[in-house]
Structure formats: C-alpha cells, structure tokens
Amino acid sequence: MNTTIYDVAREAGVSMATVSRVVNGNPNVKPATRKKVLDAIEGLGYRPNAVARGLASKKTTTVGVIIPDISSIFFAELARGIEDIATMYKYNIILCNSDQNKEKEIHLINTMLEKQVDGILFMGGEITEEHAETFKRSPVPIVLAATLDADKEMPSVNINYHQAAFDAVSDLINAGVKRVGMVTGPLEDPVNGYQKFSGYKKACEEKGQGFDENLVAVGDYTYHSGLEGAQKLVGLDDSPTAIFAATDEMALGVIHGLQDIGLKVPEDVQVIGFDNTRLAQMVRPTLTTVVQPMYDIGAVSMRLLTKYMNKEDVEDEVVALPHLMEYRDSTTF
Amino acid sequence: MNTTIYDVAREAGVSMATVSRVVNGNPNVKPATRKKVLDAIEGLGYRPNAVARGLASKKTTTVGVIIPDISSIFFAELARGIEDIATMYKYNIILCNSDQNKEKEIHLINTMLEKQVDGILFMGGEITEEHAETFKRSPVPIVLAATLDADKEMPSVNINYHQAAFDAVSDLINAGVKRVGMVTGPLEDPVNGYQKFSGYKKACEEKGQGFDENLVAVGDYTYHSGLEGAQKLVGLDDSPTAIFAATDEMALGVIHGLQDIGLKVPEDVQVIGFDNTRLAQMVRPTLTTVVQPMYDIGAVSMRLLTKYMNKEDVEDEVVALPHLMEYRDSTTF
DNA sequence: TTGAAAGCGCTAACAG
DNA sequence: CTGTTAGCGCTTTCAA
Q1: Residue numbers in A near B259 (CB within 8 A)
Q2: B96 contacts A94? CB cut-off 8 A
Q3: Is B66 within 8 Å of B105 (Cβ atoms)?
Q4: Could you list the residue range(s) of the whole structural domain that residue B226 is in?
Q5: What share of residues in chain A are helix, strand, coil (percent, to 5)?
C-alpha cells in the first residue's frame, strides 16, 4: 500500500486537513506545524495522489492535445511550443495523433473528456459540422491551433495564410517573373490547400500574369509529391520560371526535382516554400520561405487555453500572428 | 452537474453496480437489462468519469513518456511508434520534454507517478546513479527506448550502436578509403557519443588506418555543427576522404559544409549518416546511412511496457533490434 | 443475474 | 490556525 495523506497526518500528529493545506501551500498553517508535516512527508516518502485530488477538486491539471501527426516536422515544432507553455503553467499534456481522420478526432475528444482534461488544444484539417457540434458540447474550453474554423466562432491561433501566400507570390511577380507555378496541398485542406491556393490565385490575377490552372500541381505535403509536382510543371510547353510550394517539405522536393533534370535554382527556376521549418536551411540552395512561427502558434494557443481554463477575460478569441518572408538563396531577390 | 452512473441507474431502474457491469462489458448481465442500461446511457448522454474509475480501480490506462525533445525529427518518429501501439492497447500518453536535463527528468518521473500512470517509457541520455535509484523506487514498470543503461538491468529497446558504427566505417575502409573522419555527438552521450565513436575507433584500429584523434570532430547533433565539423576536418593537412556522422542531421551539415567549399560528394569525400530519418532522402546526393528503425523502437518498447503492465511473462528484457545499411549516393559503393 | 455497501485518497466547506 | 465531516464517481467484494 502506498502511503496516504492519512498516514502523514497520523505521523505528524495533525489532521489530514492540515496535511492537505501544507501540500497545497495554503498559508493558514503555523510554521511549526508546517514543519512537522513536511518532516513526516519526507520521512514517509509521501507522494500525493493526483487522481484522488482530481476527483475531489474536479481539476486534473491535464490538457488534451489532438495533433494530426507528431512525426511531421511542422507539428512536432508546434507541439514543443504547446508543451513548454503547458509546463510553465503546471499542466501536463495528453497527446494523441488523429491523422486528420474525422472519426478518430471525434473519438479522441470524447476519450479526453472522459479523462476529465481541463481543456483541449485541437489541430486538424477541416472543421466539419460534426466537429462544431462536438466542440459546442464540450464542458471544457477548446482552442484551435494552426487550424481554420470557417465561422470563426471558435478560439483559435493562426497566421493569415491567404495573405501570406499572396505576399510570397507577389514578391515573385514584382521581381519580374512572368509565370509562377504552384505546388499546393489537397484543396480540401482549408489551410495548406484552399487558403494558400487562393492567395496564389489572387496574386496571379491582380498582378498581371493571370490565373492558369495548368500551372498548379496538387501534392500531399510529402517531399516526393513536391518532386513530382516540379517535374510536371516544368514539362509544360510554357513552363513556369518560379514555383511556390505550400510547405517547405514539398519545396525541397521541388528544388531537387528541378535539379534532378538539370535545371538550376534559382537561375532557371526560383522556388519559395512555406513554414520556415528547419528544413529550409538544410538544402542547397537554401530556401526562401514564408515564416510561419510554429513554436509561437503552439505557445500562444496554449496560453490562450490557460486563460479560458482559469476563466480569465480574453480580449482576442481569434488571434492572427504576423507572418513574414525569409529571403535565402532559392530566389534571386 | 454531469450525469453520473447513479443517474443512469435510476433512469434504467437498476443499481449502479449493474450499470458499472455493462459499461465494463461484464458478461453477467441479462441482455434485456443490458439494453435498458444502454438506452439510459444513450438517452442521458452519459460519459464515464475516468478519474473516478482510476481512483477506485487503481488503473489509469495512461502511460508517461519522457522524451528529450519532441521537435527533433528522430524522437518525433519514435514517439509516433509509441503512440500508435499505446492506442492499440487502449492507453493514452502523457508526453513531456526533458531536454536531457537530469533534474527535469527526475522531476517528471515523480510528476507522472503522482498522476498514477500505469507505466513509464523513458528516453534520455545518460542513466546516472540517481536515475537508477529513482527507477528502482518506481511502483510501476519503466522501459527505456533508444537509451542505454550501462548495467543492462533495466528493460530497454535499442540497436547495437557500437556494432552499427563499426559496420559503417568498415564498409568505407573496405571500399578503399584510407582516411575516415568522424563527426560525433558529445562523448558523454552513451549512444550518439560514446558507442558510435567507439565503433568508429575500433574499425579504424582493426582495419588498418589506425586511430587519429585529429580526425574526430565533436558536434551537438545539429545541422550546423555538422557543417562546422566538416570544414574543420577538411582543413587538416592530411584530410579525410570520407566522413561518418553520428546522426543524419549532422550528416546533412557535413555534405553541405563540403559542398560549400567546393568539394564534391562522393567524388572527393564520401559521407555516411546514422538513423535513416526522412532527411536522408531530402538531400543531394542522397545520403547513405545506417538504418535505425525509430518507429519500431518506439513500437516495440511500448509493447514491452504493456506486457509489464499486464504482468505478462517477458522473455527478453533487453531487446536489440537489427540495424542495416541503406546505400545511396553519398558513397561510391 | 443483481443489489448493497464499503472504500479509493483527497478537497472543501464549516465549526471552533 | 486546526479538526470534522461530507462527498467526488466509480469498482469491487459479498450476499442474496
């Protein structure tokens, strides 16, 4: 049997309430008493049982984190930001991979709710009606990180993907590129698909080159799909002299796809990526990319969640972090 | 107030014990009764409280995972293997980053024990005496993943790092390379430092080139340190014509460090990495590397932990998974 | 096949 | 400043 608060009380010659008070740092304890209790705790090697505490207090100091895939370099960085801030506020994290599978996501939320988490941080792709229903029914706060909610009625932390993509493509066109191609994520994905694509499209339309759907290759976030996308695009009659990729990993694929068939980056074709993961510096030429502050998105969303959990006032429910460009050697400007 | 097992019992006209039985799939319930209960659960939207269950049953179906840094591509892959198997066995994961800091590691173990996890999966660097003490005192099983325990008295899952490094360097020497250099991790690190280094050293000594400490650069796992290491090594009078790096990330740094000063890989200098992370294919030339099955190490260690938690018999407490070489374009053989 | 009742270890009024 | 007393929601004997 493990030693309990009751054992400590007996050992120290006080009531369990007093032990509870010193364990929880309640100031209403005479120093001498506190010392007796502390000594007893030390002597018995007492370790409070967080489960019992959770049952009695209805707080577990644990938050659920639903993430598409922790082995993705992008989400792993986000997770690190989340965990750091959680630790700072004394929360632990229950981490689950969803593979962006709707049934799994809903199931995971329910599992976490059973475990009585104090809040949930959700990262995913599309927020369907069913997601919205589930979120609404949740007895604890839920915050979205790097995940768009069409109705903007959920608390969330993002950057403006549409604008960021628009900016990146505009840079290219302003620098004199006549035809810019794109390797996008699946268009059903609101972030890496639709938003970034629409930013690209808008820049094409407004800046003169016009939109040509042949210049768009749809990838699946992988390096390999970037590689294939590049080869498809440069195989065109009127092939692009710059390619914008929706993620850094695909951008690396694009660069190597280009190089593998003898094209030079950036001389023949310029390349811009998105995210500024560590990959961007691990390639030659180094990658010009849109900086998405992944760690910060994780950190800020966790901070936001703590505010909800503490019932603090929050002024901005929907926060958009700034993005910017990191110019490296895969572009000529 | 949330609905409890008691509400369901009243609604279904049975006792809470019966509700508990159907919730837990106990077969000793008449089908008709079961149906009544299930209907009541459905109607009330009842969701069992895992915290209360944990307190009563002394099982939380949660395991603690201590990892140096989830944003590392290597550990993220490992974590994915862990989580997948945990999910398969209906466990959830509490994930914490330790940054390989001893105090943090010990502290985290205690936090997890307070939370009454059913087991702990530990990834770290050095296992000190203090670690061993803490592990020994744990009331729940602990398994090490990709982490060496000098005394081999803890259950663990690894590959044979020494042998793997020896094999890689031997390949180079057998292929005619006269001088092989190495970029190692910190030598205090038993895995990425000492074991791999000693494998390298042994191959040098046994295969003829002899060991020359000038040929060794100590990195810190980062891409950047690989880059610097390479430049240091090729600056030598009698510079190496092949470099073995203790991790893929450092190997990418080595390749680019070489290329940045005009050397060709593999014509001028061959390069071999370690781990076979996804990075190995995201570089030109693609990287020849030692395959360490990260996902599998995670999966197998979690499986091993489930056996301990279920008090099943385990035949192999210390498991060594096989390693092999993946030959790509950064070597000439 | 079902119910009654005793905890699991702790928090949180409430009293004194 | 300290102790008493109810629970928190569930599992688990033990009887019936």
Answers
A1: 284
A2: no
A3: yes
A4: 161-292
A5: 45, 15, 40
Helix, strand or coil, per DSSP, at residue B143? strand
CA distance B69 to chain A (A): 8
Q: Is residue B53 part of a domain?
A: no
Token pair for B46:
């009842």
Identity of the residue in A51, A97, A252 whose CB atom sits nearest the CB atom of B60 = A51
Residues within 8 A of A (CB atoms), B 107-136 only: 110-111, 113-116
Single-letter residue type at A124:
G
Domain count, chain A: 3
Q: What is the mean pLDDT of residues A244-265?
A: 97
Same domain? For B218 and B270 the reply is: yes
Number of Cβ within 10 Å of residue A203's Cβ equals 25
Question: Taking CA atoms, what residue in A is nearest to B92?
Answer: A94
Instruction: Quote the CA–CA distance of A192 and B176 in Å, as a whole number.
Output: 48
Chain B positions in Cβ-Cβ contact with residue A284 (cut-off 8 Å): 256, 259-260, 284
Question: Per-residue pLDDT tens for A118-127?
Answer: 999 999 988 9
Q: What is the model's pLDDT at position A1?
A: 61
Residues A72, A35 share a domain: no
**Is the pTM here over 0.85, yes or no?**
yes
Domain identity same for B34 and B154: no
